[in-house]
Write a structure and sequence with these properties.
By secondary structure, the chain is α+β, with helices and mostly antiparallel strands. It is about 20% helix and about 35% strand.
Length: about 180
């Protein structure tokens, strides 16, 4: 039996006050470039990649049913070797436009999403305080201290009418690297 998942309330309003963390999470540009601008060594660690189940809030955005598999890439972004962001990218499994882009090993997806695909369409950023019962929080929990909620954002991209959902969870350790 699957664990019950509490869905976060995704909104276009950033759920925190102004400051360095808000500026980072709310950046409209490449998160990769933002993190690299810290001057700390940046790296991408692939946590998992392949077919998986879509979470309920992903199902709606990607228009897949609860039992349909999706293709997922989960990574940990680090600064100076410390995990600062956990990201999950999800596509429909039959998607030939996005699959080769996601199969990139430890190269950042941000370089492609912000400059490598002129025909790319980008949706609006959405933000949430993700509860401990949600999959994004559970994914990030292995890389941070226990917390009731974690801040996250997501964005839906489209390439030749094929959707890619990118979700990013911001870990508390990120704050010490921000200006």
């Amino acid at each position: 039996m699957r664990a019950m998942t509490t869905l976060p309330l995704w909104t276009e309003t950033l759920p925190l006050p102004q400051g360095a963390l808000a500026a980072c999470i709310g950046t409209q540009g490449s998160l990769t470039e933002y993190l690299m601008a810290s001057g700390q060594p940046f790296a991408v660690q692939v946590l998992s990649q392949g077919e998986d189940s879509a979470w309920p809030d992903e199902q709606k955005l990607l228009q897949v049913n609860a039992h349909a598999p999706v293709y997922v890439r989960q990574v940990c972004l680090t600064l100076a070797g410390e995990p600062v962001v956990i990201a999950r990218s999800v596509i429909r499994p039959e998607c030939q436009e996005w699959r080769p882009i996601l199969e990139r090993g430890a190269r950042s997806l941000g370089f492609t999403l912000f400059g490598g695909l002129p025909e790319l369409q980008r949706g609006t950023l959405q933000y949430a305080a993700v509860p401990a019962t949600h999959g994004l929080h559970r994914l990030a929990a292995a890389h941070t201290r226990p917390m009731e909620t974690l801040l996250a954002r997501r964005c839906l991209f489209a390439l030749q009418d094929s959707p890619l959902l990118v979700c990013e969870v911001f870990l508390p350790a990120l704050e010490k690297y921000l200006p």
